[in-house]
Amino acid sequence: MAELQALILTFLKAIGKYRWYAVGITWAVSVIGWTVVYRLPDAYQASARVYVDTQSILKPLLATMTTVPNVEQQVQFMRRTLISRPNVERVMRMVDLDIKNKSVQDHEQMVEELTSAIKVTGTERDDIYTISYSNPNPKLGKEIVQSLLTIFVEGSFGGKKQESDKAVQFIDEQIKTYEDKLAAGENALKEFKLQHMGVLPRQGSDYSSIITELTDKLNQAKLELAEAEQARNALKRQITGEEPAPVSAATAAEESINPELDSRIQALEKNLDQLRMQYTEEHPDIVSSKRLLQQLQARKKEEAKKRVRSNDPGANYSPMMQQMNVALSVEEARVASLRARVNEYASRLGTARAQSNAAPEVEAQLAQLNRDYAVNKENYTKLVERREAARLSGDLTSATDMMSFRVIDPPTAPTVPTGPHRPRLMSMVFGGALVAGLGVALLMSQVRPTFVTQNALRSATGLPILGSISMNWTDEQKVRRRRRLYAFSAAVALLFTAYGGVMAALLMKN
């Protein structure tokens, strides 16, 4: 600690030796600095505060219909890009600053000055943003802030609107392309169907189902034909087994067909027909039924031979015979109809089987055409929906209800300068002048060193010091020293008084 005090004392003595240089440098720096600060032009800060309301009722209403723009992100983007070069150059054109530029260098310098002077502050939490600009001309500062505010408001809507218009334009081009594809696909389908009209299956069916359906119908028709043929053959057998013979009227009245025998024969024939549909001719039931039927028919013939012929030609046929002939005619017609049906179904089945060989290739080509058309149609429908959504999104972006701007403090031309802060600058100049004066005095003491203490001499030479001789000042020298001390004190006091006067004048002016 003692060494530090000794060192400080040594520096002070060294500075004291060149104190007049220190005072002179301090005065010079202070006067020059104060003059420069005083002559600095006044800066007038124009500012505007705007509130951005991003909470719109349209957002939840249209969230499911279209892409709702992120208004918060738009505002933040505009805030960060407001002081960009294109915007600054636009501001210069809006306030006619570009006219004053005589060269490219002047233009670049003005752009840099504006970029550094414009400030945009605000918080996302409050959605309140402040745009400020300082300039010696208060009217110009107001115009620049107003221009920036206009760009800020317009840019928040215009960018997304332009993007939506470009998206709609691109989607329209794609829609036109898909319209051409759909038209070409429809023409291809029409030509293909006309070319393969006989091979293509009907709507909702294929050749396997058609063949199955025709096979079932053919089997059903064959079954009905077999039943009709059996019924017809049964009638023929009944008619063949009954031989008409002329008999007298009395005998004809007395002798008639045995109804019980006829009913038994008819029942047996029906039973035999049913058995034939289930079994072959060698089945025991069919063999026994045929044998019993032959016996009954032989018995019926025997009874018919015993009849006496009548002289009436109409008596040769019984009423039962006439009914059987009529029934036989009906069965013959039904057999012919069913045979025609069987032939038609057989022809259709053959045609379907012949066409089914070429059908897979035709169906594959048709499926490919339908699949391509369906894909193009689906993409076309999606593009139409996207186009409407993009248009709605663009309209929604440009809607003032989605994002409203409320100017809290409009830009005005300030009457009181906001800078420069002369008292602070004056104090900084005064402090710098003091440091400069002391620094110069210390530097001169190091350039022209002297020993002010015995310890300094002993340390420098390494020799022992036996003693020291004090300076014996005469009366005249003492008077001169006293005068120099008074002059130095007056100079220092005057310096601080000048600083105090300058500060008082500035404070009274403000």
From TrEMBL:
It comes from Pseudoduganella rivuli. This is Chain length-determining protein. Keywords: Coiled coil, Membrane, Transmembrane, Transmembrane helix. One of its GO terms (molecular function) is protein tyrosine kinase activity. The chain crosses the membrane at residues 20-40, 425-444, 485-508. It comes from the Bacteria. GO terms for cellular component: plasma membrane. The lineage of its organism: Bacteria, Pseudomonadati, Pseudomonadota, Betaproteobacteria, Burkholderiales. Residues 175-306 form a coiled coil.
